Amino acid sequence: MLDRRNVLRLASLTPAAALLQGTAFSASAGISPMTPDQTTPQKAMAAEQLRGLLNLFLPSFMADGITLDEVAIRHDVQHSIAQGFAGTLPLPNWTPPDDPRWKQFHEIIVDEAAGKLPLHGIITSSDPETDIAQLKRFEALGAEMILLAPRHDPNISEADLTEAMLKRVRATDMSFILYAALNKGRSFPHLGPAGQPLGVYDRLADEPNVVAAKISQPVTLTSTMQMCEVLADRLLMAPVNLDFFPLLARHYHMQWSGQWNAEAVQTPDSQIGNELMAACAAKDFQRVDQIMLKMQPVIDHFYLVQANSIRMGGHPWQHNKYYTWLGGGNGGLLPVDPHSAAASIPVLTASARAGIRAAFKASNLTPTDAPEEQFIVGRAAWARGVRPADLQELTRYEV
């Protein structure tokens, strides 16, 4: 059978080297990157479910910064549904798997969603057995897809990395989304361009329950196109950087982006991110270009806010919460992220908030008219009478 791997073997090429031959390779193998594989139940389900944007779900806490605010979390579930998101990934940084609040956080989301917001999970351990145990917990919760984001020794061999990934993927029937990133433990310079282990991804894409690939925001357009050339015939490709979509959609099938702060580019009343994904999937490039003109201010500003923080190993968490609140979400400051260096988490200053608001208005997105003080404690706490003075500290925030 003349499949991609046999062609590579006959040509005595590594997957990374074959990549550089680009479209000529796809044509010679008789593969069209415009039609991702849907021949397994998981890949077929993904083609139906992964449409539009999906968000990263951040927790909300009571004034003590420890107790989960259930009312606030339920508010954000409804806000995510109102945004038309195709799923949500609860972020466990503040409630890790060994914390009792991990289960509580996920169960609140599942209960409030009532089947209207598919649950995604994430596994991040360097140990396959630890991740496999976590997969069982996600199965019990009814999770539908898992972001495959373990961390490994940057000098790991291609064979060992492939084996470690396959152990996880073959431990369940749940669907997996690959994670192409540049941060520590997820970038392997000796295994492919810009640290992306293309041979490993190529092998994983053949698995029946590997359905998509999320590409982190700082990954370049060149690296993204290289991955699309190898994987888009079997996986639904999803760069976080929406700037890439008008070009990529002209060469590959593009229909979703997610598991990031998608509230940064749309509101429930103006779902321009979802509209962009639909136009790309339909190959309506006139519409794609029209939407991009409208979205450019928020896309550009979000990149400025977040990309460098990711490169440093963190995320702009308070900015992300502010984006959510600005469009009608709960908001509320997050406690210190124990998994990130303080320097990688930018301070949400008054000028930063003004910049986010200005970008919203430039893209014709209507921001909330609630007072800024409400954001600090969150809508649910504000309604209970909580005020900023009731908080012990304003983490990574300046008035």
Describe this structure in words.
The chain is of the alpha/beta class. The protein has one domain (41-388): TIM Barrel. The protein is built from 17 helices and 8 strands. The strands form 2 sheets. The chain has a 5-stranded parallel beta sheet. Helix 5 (70-82) packs across helix 6. It starts with a helix and ends in a 16-residue tail after the last helix. Residues 1-33 have low confidence and may be disordered.
Topology of this structure?
Elements: H1 4-10, H2 15-19, H3 23-28, H4 41-49, E1 52-57, H5 70-82, E2 88-90, H6 100-113, E3 120-123, H7 128-141, E4 145-148, H8 158-169, E5 175-180, H9 198-204, E6 210-215, H10 221-231, E7 236-239, H11 245-248, E8 256-260, H12 272-281, H13 285-311, H14 317-326, H15 350-362, H16 372-377, H17 379-383
Helix pairs in contact: 5-6, 7-8, 8-9, 12-13, 13-15, 14-15
Keywords:
single chain; 399 residues; alpha/beta; TIM Barrel; 5-stranded parallel β-sheet; disordered N terminus
Could you provide a short overview of the structure?
The chain is of the alpha/beta class and 399 residues long.
The CATH first-level class comes to: Alpha Beta
Q: What count of domains describes the coordinates?
A: 1
Shape: globular
Mean pLDDT: 92
Work out the helicity level. 40-55%
> Roughly how many Å apart are the termini?
64 Å
Oligomer: single chain
* Biggest sheet features: 5 strands, parallel
Coarse structural class: alpha/beta
Name the beta content range.
5-15%
Please, how many helices? 17
Strand order of the largest sheet: 3-4-5-6-7
What's the order of the H and E elements? Answer: HHHHEHEHEHEHEHEHEHEHHHHHH
The CATH superfamily label reads Aldolase class I
Q: What is the correct CATH architecture?
A: Alpha-Beta Barrel
Uncertain spans, ≥5 residues at pLDDT below 50? 1-33
Work out the radius of gyration: 21 Å
Please count the beta strands (DSSP E, at least 2 residues each). 8
CATH topology category name: TIM Barrel
